[in-house]
Amino acid sequence: CALSALMAAILAVENDAALAATTGFAAYGIAQEIAAQDAEGPASFAMRLIDALHHLSAERLNYDLQKMEQA
Fold it and tell me: What backbone torsions phi and psi does residue 14 show, to the nearest 5 degrees?
């Protein structure tokens, strides 16, 4: 559900569907990594994932994507 909502939000402001999908999957993956750092189980992971998505900035997204490109 969260990924679908994120994709819909991005598609609402980005006309290029491929770019929107790529950005959405990348943002969701980065938020999952952030959430997993402190999660103690499935319930805390879900809560932390929502928080990570809420707090994910464009700067953090770009930084992590650049790191992935260099790897």
Answer: -125, 120
